[in-house]
């Protein structure tokens, strides 16, 4: 076991940190203003300052850093993890600047792994070049979609086409008109075995019958800087059969494959969020005086800072180990750890943000600091990709089985 | 000791519950639409449906229920508490419909208790009639204002006038143009004894030099249904000396006097919020099925429901006892209990809301349920009127003193 | 609603507090020494100092204060609650001095309510006079006995006798040779309806076939000052049929009836334990200096004290309300509240004790303060009479039903 | 970064696990019986079965595994950590069998690092051979000894001797008559600079004036299997000046140096304790049935198991990283991490033990499972070597300084 950071990753981190300091952080306000001045409330991807940052990222070799192999920057999960953490310190801008923003990352992975040459040509290539965006349409409003068998959207074969009907919500990014393609999960065969009923299909956002119903709010945010979270309705949407990803019945397996890297990314960025929160908390309490002493000398505040550091160090190591497992034994071998970080990350990071907010008083919940928007985003991770309770249940089942085997 | 509910309060509660069922809850959507259609984003008090509800409240004798004595409905704190809880189930509309919304309630109390006949005539009377609104300007952006000695706003005597200079924020209701009067806390004598430096003065919102800088957001919400939370700047604002409330140096004492009832009201309404959350949680989990069973049969969900009920019952009793103490031994005699409920209420209610949200999945954080807006509001209570940490510190000091006395 | 304490209870409390100060607390060390010097390690009831204290309790009219009606002191549950809290401040001695110690209290209630005149004459009378002790044998080692249908002990009719076979553990008080009578729960008819299978029967501790296997430890304590916690085996123990309590199939109902008052007593005494812990914590931190300041001025310690007070006040009110409900609507009507305090009390009191211990450093866990023994005792309440998890599950079920009814 | 376990450590772990399975675990009951049958209640080190296990450990090359360098087994901290975890599964016997039990380990380190050749010859050599035991006398009953300046024991130079006066408690192991040597911390120069006042001196346990006052209890345990926790009084105890360790004023520095490895060992063993608890919890809930289903299928229990696993994985990684830091940058460079694991470990392990106990019902607190004794031991870690609150305060101060430096 060797905790020495990877030298190549360290170089990239240094370059990214320089870019953050010199380019990204100073651009945050301009991004907000340009987005507000934009013609389309949701079209964050067209904002000029973002194009400049993307050029900078390309110059530094940070473009598509999330994607292993030739199509991406050739980094391991462990190497990328160190970068993803840094981007978490400016969640609105940094991941997008590196073309490493969810849900595009997961969608590109799906296309890279399961797409046909034609699908790659049509959708993956422009995504990798940052010309278009995408969305992933799985969650449904009317059922507990953590249980994949509940999926009610239908994908019905009809001649050379498939016809999609159903309703989805919380489709992040889909309010953005640039999200040209939607990966839609639905059932092709409700009578098949439990995990073979579902398929995924590529639906152009401008296909006939695709209705963008509304944007969902997260607490009071519409998240337009991320393309919002759309409610979508599919009314007899017809797409060519060649739009199916992999094959009929592969939907569940693709969803599972997509989750691993997605969670690592979310978790590492969230750790960056927590580091940002600790920095702000320390800065605030060092300058704020009440009852004759800086807040930084009050015992309860010190307790928060210490707990924050102690919890975050533990969490980071588990996320890094999970990345390493994915690199060495694959996503399947890392299944339990992937669940574990999905459970552990929001719990820890939300706690730290809550304390940082409290240290800021009213300002902490306001638009003056990034803490309020951050806690709203982190809060969603407790049910995104299935509520924590489902994952805990599953992780416990695996532990019980493992222990029973050990008892013989 | 007798836990039988007060019969008069019970009658009023029954009437209010009927009004909620038949008038308030059905009006919530109309209120939102009319507010959105309003000329002024912040002028919630002009919305037609509200006028109708106010008439209903007057008819039922629920108007100004918060105010004891002749000027109000003549209820004790304990009696009003039962009503306040019910209004918490529709926080946007019900308190306003009864003319029992903060910060007007506290401001009316201040005027009723400390105002001159002229001040009462000019400001209290139209407030009691619901013709104008008001705001209370204490918190400042640049200092930890939980420590009253930090207040930086100056109120300087100049001939027959006072001249106000300073900056305030989180001034709830002050974005509303109908908030005709501001009660402003500032220092008249920075050289006086610690708690005699501050005074309060009445400043018309349209006085020259009053600048409404912007509205503060709470987790993405601008709270326009409550008149927002303004940042205000006072640039050489000149008002007649007769606008001073009570006398020079009375500011701290008035602020203390204002806090007691205000907290009881907040706490009781928050308990209503929690009851609403428990109801929604129970309804949701009874109808939602995952992995073959309704959520209501899953152990962890049951644990949340039980914990919610057990914690809320304890909290309610402490709030009611505090109301009773205020009625029997006065605000000063109830000082420790008032601090205790200020600490206990957001902790318990935020916990319950968090679980209710989790039981709703993504919907829980969205605009589709009142839970997200509720948790944002409740979260502010952890630092409104000073952060919990300050109150815990003070409560502990009192306990240590009491215990030392008991040891002799 | 009226929170004024009951004047009669207040008088008795004053008398009890005087007795605590002048007699009980000064006797604690002597009790320990006499118990150590005793011939029988478990025979706490024979210790001389206890006899003196009992005489004092009788003189003051505090004897059998727990028992309502003529047989006892004629107090309501609410009145006795105030006394029980005071006895919690010296758990080893005070309840016993008043003949108000578990499990005798519950057993006397069972006999008073369900016993035949002969059973009362033989067992209740000497118990009320404090001449003998008793035990209640329900929990079994081999099954989850929170589920009454799991009870494996058999009570088989055989002519004019019943024959008892089975194994019990955690039978508090039964190591004491003075525990002359055991109330044993077993099954008379395993084929009956779920809650009609069980019966209770009186078994003299010296009956043939009763084996006292060993004393169970609680975190290293053998609790000999309470008669320990015995593991018992019943080998064909034959008792006359007239020893049956109430009738065949009444066991479950008797157990339920026994629980209500028992829990109130436990909870009120536990609140007294918490008050003792707060007192000790305050005393300790006021005198202990580290890094130049008394611990009482350190923020985290203040936070503990404030939280302790805030939580305890809420808990006490719920326990008192439950006592009031039992007095006014009966044990059945107070069912939910009885469950609620069973859940809430150990959670709160254990938390307070943990903090008081931490404030004492190593001493807190040692024999030098009553905190360590107290936390061991309180910890057992989390599964005594069924684990909290079972009670939460049941309480949630009732809440879900209530909410469904309210929705109509 | 590479999470592959060290192959040499893995081999030793495999050997140790075999030894645990075949020798240590089967010997636990015999150890207890032989200890009970022993002439001296405290002389655990003389028990026959232990000698056999020690031979086994020597045969396997596991003897003195804790000690790096030639004098020990030549393992790094990281390598030993893996072994220490395994010994945590049988805390009473396994560390002692490997001659790796506290406080001897820390004392041997002190002697190895700071001892003169004569001191090593006299005390270190027999300790390394397992012929004698030792104790470390730092904590004092009358002061908060987490603040080293509070130490009240005096070590006064008098001719060729030092004379020791003072009172110590919680001196683990010192009730054992085989603890031939005490390392005593006291003040040689109260007027020196804050951290140069203290010195350490070797005091034979049988020196004139050493009084063994009594054994301290931890909850209800006297921990005789670890030589208890003695209260000691030093009445004009005279030892030759050559018994001083290092030099006058070096006491604080030696104490600091001693802490690092000691904490790693404690933490790794505690992780083994937690693993043992998870195993027992899983076994219990798989076999126990209530209300028609095994406990292992109940949601709350699953939640406990999942949380236990998720928390423990994070903790272990931080402890291992700390061991690696000590190996690569030294104890001083690992200062913050050493504090972090000291804070994190008892919090996590106590939580897991509490849940495992609850899953066992009454049995969990009793002598029938190792859980009760384990939680008592783990609880002490929250104030051993200074309460967590002191360490959090210090860790936060370092974080604040680091953040201030980063802000520039």
UniProtKB/TrEMBL annotation, chains A, B, C, D:
One of its GO terms (biological process) is fatty acid beta-oxidation using acyl-CoA dehydrogenase. Residues 249-398 form the Acyl-CoA dehydrogenase/oxidase C-terminal domain. Keywords: FAD, Flavoprotein, Oxidoreductase. One of its GO terms (cellular component) is cytoplasm. The keyword Flavoprotein applies. Gene3D superfamilies: Acyl-CoA dehydrogenase/oxidase, N-terminal domain, Butyryl-CoA Dehydrogenase, subunit A, domain 2, Butyryl-CoA Dehydrogenase, subunit A, domain 3. Residues 27-131 form the Acyl-CoA dehydrogenase/oxidase N-terminal domain. Residues 135-237 form the Acyl-CoA oxidase/dehydrogenase middle domain. InterPro entries: Acyl-CoA_dehydrogenase (IPR050741), Acyl-CoA_Oxase/DH_mid-dom (IPR006091), Acyl-CoA_Oxase/DH_mid-dom_sf (IPR046373), AcylCo_DH-like_C (IPR036250), AcylCo_DH/oxidase_C (IPR009075), AcylCoA_DH/ox_N (IPR013786), AcylCoA_DH/ox_N_sf (IPR037069), AcylCoA_DH/oxidase_NM_dom_sf (IPR009100). One of its GO terms (molecular function) is acyl-CoA dehydrogenase activity. It holds the Pfam family Acyl-CoA_dh_1. Its cofactor is FAD. Belongs to the acyl-CoA dehydrogenase family. Homodimer. This is Acyl-CoA dehydrogenase. It comes from Lapillicoccus jejuensis.
């Amino acid at each position: 076991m060797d905790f020495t950071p990877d030298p190549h990753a360290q170089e990239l981190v240094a370059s990214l940190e320089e870019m953050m300091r010199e380019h990204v952080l100073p651009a945050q306000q301009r991004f907000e203003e340009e987005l507000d001045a934009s013609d389309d409330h949701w079209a964050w991807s067209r904002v000029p300052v973002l194009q400049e940052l993307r050029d900078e990222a390309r110059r530094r070799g940070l473009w598509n850093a999330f994607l292993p192999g030739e199509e991406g920057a050739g980094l391991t999960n462990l190497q990328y993890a160190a970068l993803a953490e840094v981007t978490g310190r400016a969640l609105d801008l940094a991941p997008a600047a590196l073309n490493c923003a969810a849900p595009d990352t997961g969608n590109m992975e799906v296309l890279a792994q399961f797409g046909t040459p034609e699908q790659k040509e049509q959708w993956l290539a422009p995504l990798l070049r940052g010309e278009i965006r995408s969305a992933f349409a799985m969650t449904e409003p009317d059922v507990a979609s953590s249980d994949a068998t509940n999926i009610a959207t239908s994908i019905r074969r009809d001649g050379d086409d498939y016809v999609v009907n159903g309703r989805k919500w919380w489709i992040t990014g889909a309010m953005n008109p640039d999200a040209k393609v939607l990966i839609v999960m639905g059932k092709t065969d409700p009578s098949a075995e439990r995990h073979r009923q579902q398929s995924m299909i590529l639906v152009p956002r401008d296909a006939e019958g695709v209705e963008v119903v509304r944007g969902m709010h997260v607490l009071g945010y519409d998240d337009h800087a991320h393309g919002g979270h759309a409610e979508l309705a599919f009314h007899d949407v017809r797409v060519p059969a060649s739009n199916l990803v992999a094959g009929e019945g592969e939907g569940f397996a693709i969803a599972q494959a997509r989750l691993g890297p997605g969670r690592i990314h979310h978790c590492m960025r969230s750790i960056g969020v927590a580091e940002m929160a600790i920095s702000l908390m320390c800065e605030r309490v060092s300058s704020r005086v009440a009852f004759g002493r800086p807040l930084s000398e009050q015992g309860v505040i010190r307790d928060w800072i210490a707990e924050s550091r102690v919890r975050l160090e533990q969490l980071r190591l588990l996320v890094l180990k999970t990345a390493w497992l994915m690199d060495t034994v694959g996503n399947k071998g890392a299944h339990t750890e992937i669940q574990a970080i999905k459970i552990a990350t929001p719990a820890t990071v939300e706690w730290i943000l809550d304390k940082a907010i409290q240290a800021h008083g009213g300002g902490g919940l306001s638009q003056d600091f990034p803490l309020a928007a951050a806690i709203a985003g982190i809060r969603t991770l407790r049910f995104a990709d299935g509520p924590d309770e489902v994952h805990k249940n599953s992780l416990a089942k695996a532990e019980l089985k493992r222990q029973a085997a050990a008892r013989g």
